Amino acid sequence: EQLVESGGGFVHPGGSLRLSCLTSGFDFGSTSMAWMRQAPGKGLEWVGRIYSGDHHTTYHPSVEGRFTISRDDAKSTLYLQMNDVKIEDTAKYYCRRDSPGAPRGQGTQVIVSS
Question: Considering the chain, what percentage of its residues have pLDDT values greater than 70?
Answer without folding.
Answer: 100
